[in-house]
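Record type: monomer structure entry
Structure origin: computed from sequence
Chain ID: A
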Amino acid sequence: MVECLSCGKRNRLPDAASGVPRCANCQTPLPWIADADDTTFPAVADAADLPVLVDLWATWCGPCRMVTPALEALARSHAGKVKLVKVDVDRSPLTARRFAVQSVPTLIVLHRGEVVDRQAGAAPEHVLRPWLDEAIRRARSSPSTTVG
């Protein structure tokens, strides 16, 4: 369940769907935060219409827990522009291997399954914001993609 930042209505969002999630009440774009694992990652992240910020993390990782609020704030401020997908590398070794994760957290921006950019390590929101903005810009300007 996601609360609309505009009208406060609670909305149910599936992890995997097409398009941009919008509030059922006021049609404002909603922040989209989902979990994925080795089985669900293709449907949740690779098939997403929006650019996807993938957070490859682990439960035992202190920096991973520290960066979570910044990532969730970015998902809220970029509602309708990005989808945040969280992947626990200990429970999803195939996904971790696919992206050659050597340390956590590792952040990757995907668009239609292709890596647009990546960053290893935790960083504060004011550092992540311009990095994410630039990755979204590159995803939008890619000649083979159209992002809404």
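Annotation 1: The two ends are 23 Å apart (CA to CA).
Annotation 2: The chain has a mean pLDDT of 94.
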